[in-house]
Amino acid sequence: MAKNRSVGIIVGVALLALIALIVAFNVINLNEAFGGGPPYYGRTTNMDKWSNPLPVLAAIDALALLLIAAYAYFMRRKP
């Protein structure tokens, strides 16, 4: 029992670190794509090279939500 609980705590802390990294990744990418000047500066300066970051960010966020949901499911199960 104690070993199982400690593994769960370690995985939980790792998931919290993963959440922090994903939030930072989202903020950096959204700020680069949409921030920093008159309307969407990143879009207008290199319009031929600009790509919408939202689909990639949505895929990464969905994967993180699946990992968190799986962790919650397995932690709620009774051994």
Count the domains. Answer: 1
| Anisotropy-based shape | elongated
What fraction, in percent, of the residue positions are helical?
A: over 70%
User: How many helical stretches?
Assistant: 3
Unreliable sequence segments? none
Specify Rg, calculated over alpha carbons.
18 Å
- The tally of beta strands, per DSSP, is 0
Mean pLDDT: 81
Describe this structure in words.
The chain has helices at 2-34, 41-45, 54-76. The mean pLDDT is 81. The chain starts with a helix and ends with a helix. The protein is 77% helix and 0% strand. The protein has one domain. The protein has three helices and no strands. The protein is elongated and about 55 Å long. Helix 1 runs antiparallel to helix 3 (54-76). The chain is mainly α. The chain crosses the membrane at residues 7-28, 54-74. Keywords: Membrane, Transmembrane, Transmembrane helix.
Write the layout of secondary structure elements.
Elements: H1 2-34, H2 41-45, H3 54-76
Fill in the keyword field for this structure.
79 residues, mainly alpha, 3 helices, elongated, transmembrane, transmembrane helix, membrane
How would you summarize what this structure contains?
Keywords: Membrane, Transmembrane, Transmembrane helix. The chain crosses the membrane at residues 7-28, 54-74. The protein has helices spanning 2-34, 41-45, 54-76.
